[in-house]
Design brief:
alpha+beta, 60s Ribosomal Protein L30, Chain: A, 6-stranded antiparallel sheet, 45% strand
Amino acid sequence: MNNANTLYQYGTLAMLVPGLFEGTLPLKELLKHGDTGIGTGDGLDGELVILDGVAYQIDGQGNVNELDGDFTVPFADVHFASFEHLANVHALVKMEDLEEKVSSELDWNNVFYSVRAHGTFKSVKTRSVHKQSKPYPTLVECAHEQNEFEKEDVEGTVIGYYSPQLFNGPSVGGFHLHFLADDKSVGGHLLDFEMVSGDIKVQKLDELVQKLPSSNDDFMKHDFSNDDIAGAIGEAE
C-alpha cells in the first residue's frame, strides 16, 4: 500500500548549487515512489512535471516532451496523489495570492505539503533551461541563462510543493511550483500566473524519504562547506 503522507526526494537542491547535475536515477525507478511530482533532468535538462504517473519534460526551447523510463534525474520530488479539496477559484487569483491563501488556511508551516491547482489561466509565465555539458556551470550561472515563456488563456495544472524553512537546502523553503498546460503547449518552472477559475487541492506530507546518490563519485567527494547554498537557491529559484 502506498503511503499518501510520504514525500520521496531524490537528491537535494543543494547538490545543484555547485553544478552536480548528473542524472543518476532512471524515471522508471523514481516512479515506484510516486505518481505526482516535479524535478529536473540529467545535466539540468529542462523542468519536469509528473502527473497521474506520466512524466513530462519542458526543455530549454519550451517544448513539452513525454519521457520514457530511461530518462535520468539528479533531483526530483514525488508522492502518491491523494489530494483534498481546499478552495474553488471564481475570480482572478495571482500566484502570490494562491500561495498566501493556501498558507493562511492551513496550519502546516512546519511540514511538507503538495499543492495542485487546475483550471483556466488568464496568463502564465514559466522558465526552463537547456541541458548543460561538463564541466557543469553552477546553478546560479544557469539561472542567468534561463529561457522564459508566456501564454495567455490556457487550461492547465499548477503542481508543486511547500517545504518548511528548516528544510531550505534539501528543498526550496516555501513554495516550489511547476506548470503544465492541458494541451501541452507550455509548461515549466512557474514565475507568475493569473488564474481565473478552477480548484485548489492540497495534500499533507509529514514523512520524508530522502535518497542520496551515494554511487556518484562527484557527489561523494564534493565539499559543500564552500558553497553558499541558501544564497544560491534564493537567487536561482
